């Protein structure tokens, strides 16, 4: 080894090569050392720029650092005025003068009802902020605001009162802070919280011994929305719910009516279906748009594949079960939804006459469809040689309503027609259809996942050729109908299973 070194170092070329290699190593080490040092210095600067958390009391009531978003002289003046006004130190005649237009419209009695009302607004974004502002300006003096979120730059295209100075502050405190400058006598109970089923009783409870006169649902998360509406329905709290304003642009298509009558709205459909599973099918007024999507219109696009590759979609959001996509929203539409919601609450609280779209009132149709399904099972049992008299089916009128409205959207899977509808078994039973496990009782082995929707004429042909004949559905229908039937029956079966599980 030493002789090789001697020979190598004796060569002039080898010396040059060795020198170059050593120099490269030295230079490379110097560069890497410099980069490492620069990273260390940058990290130190970054850490130094982060304010020390210190005493948590340094945070303001708005959730910001004490030195950030310092209130202006006008803000401090408004806050002081509001504090006095809430204690009664405000000229009553001035309040009536400010509310004079509402007073003339609603009469003294109506305005007094409004001024005595306690209203809860859940969700203080685009819709909820406009509803809150309209209610405060109209005379409501006791309001509870519930929202976990903060004002962002993207909120400013649709929020009723937020300014650049409010970015980063909780939405509930932003509303209170700004509206105190307009209606200083309003008592705001701000809850910077996420609404949920577990906390519903506390969040929708009394305010100083007064039960809520009205609840406004401006939530855009389905699970929270369903929890709120279900609680209100079960506890007989007056409520109105705003459906989706995203991807909508036509104000002439906005309607208010019973949730059972809402159409062409994905949020409404999902909410309606989940509520039906909880036993709530109607009786909730909602604001919704009948505007249909079309070429050139905004739409909610699917997540790109790279987002799915990051992990479970549910883990991509800030909070569990909350959307991870930006909804296309024209700033004017949430404002209109919010004002319509507030208008309804005002009319309801004051007793002012109003008429809206009724619920679909299809109970008679559901009774007829249920009777037809029952008769079809009896005919099939008799055809298969079984006793059909006294046969029962484990499908209720509410189940019929869910199948027709939510699963099949009120249309035949064969022709797409929506008149003279009927429900019928899809597949011919491979064994006896009578359940005799309970002595003295005959039930049909018929589940919601066995049933499809057709017109009466199509159902008669299906019964004749498939259920009693020799043909299979594949012999009678094209691929589109077969795929639709497969998807819809699976959907109905999942709903039936979920209903039994929720009952446990």
From TrEMBL:
PANTHER family: TRNA THREONYLCARBAMOYLADENOSINE DEHYDRATASE, TRNA THREONYLCARBAMOYLADENOSINE DEHYDRATASE 1-RELATED. Belongs to the HesA/MoeB/ThiF family. InterPro entries: ThiF/MoeB/HesA, ThiF_NAD_FAD-bd, Ubiquitin-activating_enz. One of its GO terms (molecular function) is ATP binding. It is a multi-pass membrane protein. Signal peptide: none annotated. It is found in: Mitochondrion outer membrane. Catalyzes the ATP-dependent dehydration of threonylcarbamoyladenosine at position 37 (t(6)A37) to form cyclic t(6)A37 (ct(6)A37) in tRNAs that read codons beginning with adenine. Residues 101-356 form the THIF-type NAD/FAD binding fold domain. Keywords: ATP-binding, Ligase, Membrane, Mitochondrion, Mitochondrion outer membrane, Nucleotide-binding, Transmembrane, Transmembrane helix. The keyword Ubl conjugation does not apply. The keyword Transmembrane helix applies. Its main location: mitochondrion. It comes from the Eukaryota. GO terms for cellular component: mitochondrial outer membrane. GO terms for biological process: cyclic threonylcarbamoyladenosine biosynthetic process. Gene3D superfamilies: NAD(P)-binding Rossmann-like Domain. This is THIF-type NAD/FAD binding fold domain-containing protein. The chain crosses the membrane at residues 12-34.
């Amino acid at each position: 080894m030493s002789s090789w070194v001697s020979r190598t170092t004796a060569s002039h070329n080898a010396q040059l090569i060795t020198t170059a290699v050593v120099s490269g190593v030295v230079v490379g080490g110097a560069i890497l050392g410099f980069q490492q040092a620069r990273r260390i210095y940058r990290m130190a600067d970054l850490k130094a720029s982060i304010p020390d958390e210190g005493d948590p009391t340094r945070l303001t009531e708005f959730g910001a650092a004490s030195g950030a978003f310092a209130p202006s002289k006008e803000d401090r003046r408004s806050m002081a005025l509001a504090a006095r006004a809430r204690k009664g130190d405000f000229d009553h005649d001035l309040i009536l003068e400010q509310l004079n237009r509402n007073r003339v419209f609603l009469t003294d009695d109506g305005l007094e009802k409004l001024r005595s009302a306690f209203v809860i607004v859940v969700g203080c974004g685009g819709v909820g902020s406009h509803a809150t502002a309209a209610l405060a300006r109209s005379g409501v003096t006791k309001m509870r605001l519930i929202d976990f979120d903060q004002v962002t730059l993207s909120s400013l295209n649709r929020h009723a009162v937020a300014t650049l100075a409010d970015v980063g502050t909780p939405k509930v405190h932003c509303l209170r802070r700004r509206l105190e400058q307009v209606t200083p006598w309003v008592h705001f109970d701000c809850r910077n919280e996420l609404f949920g089923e577990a906390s519903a009783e506390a969040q929708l409870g009394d305010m100083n011994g007064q039960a809520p006169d009205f609840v406004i649902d401006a939530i855009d998360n389905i699970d929270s929305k369903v929890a709120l509406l279900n609680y209100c329905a079960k506890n007989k709290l007056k409520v109105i719910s705003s459906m989706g304003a995203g991807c909508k642009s036509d104000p002439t298509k906005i309607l208010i009516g019973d949730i059972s009558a809402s159409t062409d709205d994905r949020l409404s459909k999902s909410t309606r279906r989940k509520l039906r599973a909880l036993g709530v099918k109607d009786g909730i007024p909602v604001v919704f748009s009948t505007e249909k999507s079309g070429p050139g219109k905004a739409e909610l696009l699917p997540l790109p594949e790279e987002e799915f590759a990051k992990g479970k979609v549910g883990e991509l959001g800030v909070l569990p079960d909350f959307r991870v996509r930006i909804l296309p929203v024209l700033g004017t539409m949430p404002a209109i939804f919010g004002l319509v919601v507030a208008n309804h609450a005002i009319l309801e609280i004051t007793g002012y006459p109003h008429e809206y779209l009724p619920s679909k009132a299809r109970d008679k149709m559901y009774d007829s469809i249920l009777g037809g399904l029952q008769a079809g099972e009896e005919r099939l049992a008799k055809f298969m040689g079984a006793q059909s008299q006294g046969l029962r089916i484990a499908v209720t009128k509410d189940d019929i309503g869910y199948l027709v409205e939510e699963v099949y959207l009120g249309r035949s899977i064969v022709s797409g027609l929506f008149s003279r509808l009927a429900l019928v078994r899809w597949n011919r039973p491979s064994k006896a259809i009578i359940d005799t496990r309970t002595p003295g009782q005959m039930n049909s082995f018929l589940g919601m996942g066995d049933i499809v929707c057709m017109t009466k004429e199509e159902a008669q042909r299906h019964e004749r050729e498939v259920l009693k004949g020799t043909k299979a559905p594949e012999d009678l229908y094209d691929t589109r109908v077969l795929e639709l039937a497969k998807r819809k029956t699976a959907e109905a079966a999942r709903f039936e299973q979920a209903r039994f599980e929720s009952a446990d």
